[in-house]
Amino acid sequence: xxxxxxxxxxxxxxQTRLDNRAAHLAYIESTGVVAQAGPLLDQxxxxxxxxxxxxxxxxxxxxxxxxxxxxxxxxxxxAVELITxxxxxx
Length: 90
Hints:
Elements lengths: L1 E8 L4 H18 L2 E8 L5 E9 L3 H10 L1 H4 L3 E8 L6
């Protein structure tokens, strides 16, 4: 099952993102369930959130992945949404 994780950073938390980026990327690599991922950007090109496409067994696995993401554990996110996603192109 593909799940889109859409997370918005708390305002003025760019340094939290930068401080935890290496751990977040290592987590993505180690879990092996991320099909695509990248930061959301504001009009200035600054990172303000994340889009992660998870390929997991069910929504519970997606919720568990999100809960254990170092960004989430660091308190970076203001809001996180997980929604089932259907790949059509690409």
